[in-house]
Amino acid sequence: MNLLQPLALWALPLVALPVVVHLLHRRRHRVVEWGAMMFLLEGERSSRGRQRLRELLLLAARTLAVLALVLTLGRPIAGGWAARVAGERLDQVILIIDRSSSMGEEVDGFPESKLAFGLRAAGEALAITAPRELVVVDATRPTEVLRPQDLDALLELSFDEATSAGSDVLTAFETAARTIEGAGAGRTEVWALTDAQREDWAPEDGRWEAVVQQLSRAGGGAGARVRLTSFPEVAEDNLAVRVQSVRRESEGETAELVLDLVITRAAATEASGDTALRVPVAIEVGGARTTVEVELTGREGRLMGHRVAIDTELEAGFGAVEIPTDRRAGDDRYWFAFGSTPVVETAVLAESSTVASVISVAARSPAGPDVIHEVRELAPSAREAVDPGGAALLAWQAPLPVGEAAAAVARFCEVGGVVLFLPPSSPGEGSFAGVGWGQWSSVDEAAQESAVKTWRADADLLASGADGTPLPVGEVSLRRVCSIRSVGEAPVARIPLAGLEGGQPLMVKSAMGRGAAYFLGTLPEPRSSDLASQGIVFMALVHRALDQAAAALGSEEQQVASANERWLEERWSVAASDRPDSLAERGRRAGVLTDGEVFVALNRPLSEDAAPALPGAVLAESLAPLDVVVTTTSAAAEGGSLLDEVWRIFLILVLGALLVELLLCSPEGSPPREGAE
């Protein structure tokens, strides 16, 4: 049994109050010897045993009443017969299941995964509560709704096995809210099984407010209760492997694959920080298997430029790297595919030829031997019918798009493209993604306001390097700046990335689907800033935008596992997989798909390896002011968060104990007869 309000246990010392009163009551009587009472004392001895029993029963009733009252205030929850007696039957339960890769980790002390453990607890709770309707939403395909007969029907579909895809918990809650609103059910609860990773929850997203409003209207305005079972714990010794890059090189009669491998550890203790751990890594390509050791110090170990000989006739293919299995098997293998060198394209639409030239030079600068960067310049006159095509980055220095052009750019962002908006000579009144341009203004260099005062160095395009070295953003000289203004209620959050003295934003991000739109309030030209001559900041900004878009769009050979309907097309067949997949699971499990010519490797999102888990307070805050119950792994071992409150039983015990006290305190003997003196 668990308590929803454990602070009530601080009142437990009050249980001793009846005992203290009883002892004090016994001590207050003064014994006086009186000879005339000797005959009465003889009669009292015959009833002393019954009197003592009556006092003990009275003491027990009072103690039980106080104890039951304290537990009632603590709002206890339990299963078994207690929940059947005290629980109210639910009309509808919507079960949201996080089936991301990290949910496949085994629970400490139990020989089963977090997902299987949570589903077992949910099954026990469903058997107790017996809701009239069960609705299931899989967070790895969050727009779909399942209505199984019971949880056993889900287990037959292997729903207790984690996929390799990431979860979108927010969209799953949106689906749950729409389902409740459409059904018009009475008492409704939303149950969620999750490991509370930040990337899955996106607590900063503004859509949570709309979800909470919809859930608040459920049950005739009573609101839906939300019960979250969270599994945030991660094994500190858990290791994860991934292939950072792979390319094929050939020279003469030899051909090789060049691999960059990364092994990460969930947490590095003080002892492990100084001690190197040698991890054996098996590399399998074309049926041949080799093993190499990677030295891991602290939290990360890298093997860069490792060469594996392959057949010269093997122009395209696939393989896998694998480390010894630990508690989370889903990150112990990483698939890769290889073929021709990928091409990452930047589309540039600029009014100024100088700006277009600077962007083109920055985008074409080589960032590594395994990627070809190309630039395609679009005529400014084509902005009304812009077509980003296969570009990853769209640099736009012109009035903001409107009409069909705005819709095309929005679609480009939704699928993973990145747009970098730069201010035109005449900003205009238009807006895009809730952001618009203001007016140009000169920057007073004499007042030392020409440098950027604040910028976000922990994430995104202006983040510090992998070694912690910050970008010299504060050294950028600004000569004129175009203000950035917010327009209306944006569908997504507007995130400031850099600002000037006084809080004026210099760079703002609007997330859109899998991509994003960035607004930079100056130009890389001499009369506006020294971004072109200084070079480092602007080139890093452009290439990070390209990397972000490439990761979202994915090269043809490397993709993130997802519920993309593309993988359900008949032309794709499974070349290799961690396990046999049903058609419904295709694309959401790690493996390799092929259409006969191209191989595509599907793997878990990188955020599954290192994304921090959110504390229960943040989860509850995302759904405030709904009635939210959050239970972490330790309490979930008893299934507490998915069971009914049983405070009614303890309230009945309070009333019963008080009734017994009333009977015991009543005067003995029969009532006087009518008419007697």
Topology:
Blueprint: E1 2-3, H1 17-27, H2 38-73, E2 76-77, H3 80-86, E3 92-97, H4 114-129, E4 133-138, H5 151-156, H6 169-183, E5 188-194, H7 198-201, H8 207-216, E6 225-230, E7 239-251, E8 254-265, H9 270-274, E9 277-285, E10 288-296, E11 300-310, E12 317-322, E13 333-338, E14 343-350, H10 353-364, E15 372-378, E16 393-397, H11 403-414, E17 418-422, E18 431-432, E19 435-442, E20 454-455, E21 480-486, E22 494-499, E23 505-512, E24 515-520, H12 531-534, H13 536-553, E25 558-560, E26 573-577, E27 591-594, E28 599-603, H14 607-610, H15 616-622, E29 628-631, H16 633-636, H17 647-665
Parallel strand pairs: 3-4, 3-5, 5-6, 6-29, 14-15, 14-16, 16-17, 17-24, 25-28
Antiparallel strand pairs: 1-2, 7-8, 8-11, 9-10, 9-12, 12-13, 18-19, 19-21, 20-22, 22-23, 23-24, 26-27, 27-28
Helix pairs in contact: 1-2, 2-17, 6-8
CATH topology of the largest domain: Rossmann fold
Query: What's the number of domains?
Result: 4
Alpha carbon gyration radius: 34 Å
CATH architecture of the largest domain: 3-Layer(aba) Sandwich
- CATH classification, class level of the largest domain: Alpha Beta
Name the CATH homologous superfamily of the largest domain: Class I glutamine amidotransferase (GATase) domain
Major sheet: order of its strands? Answer: 15-14-16-17-24-23-22-20
Total helical elements: 17
**Strand count, sense and closure of the main sheet?**
8 strands, mixed
- Mean pLDDT score, rounded? 81
Beta percentage is 25-35%
Give me the oligomer status: single chain
Structural class category: alpha/beta
Low-confidence stretches: 79-86, 635-641
**Global geometry:** globular
User: What's the total count of β strands?
Assistant: 29
- The helix content is 25-40%
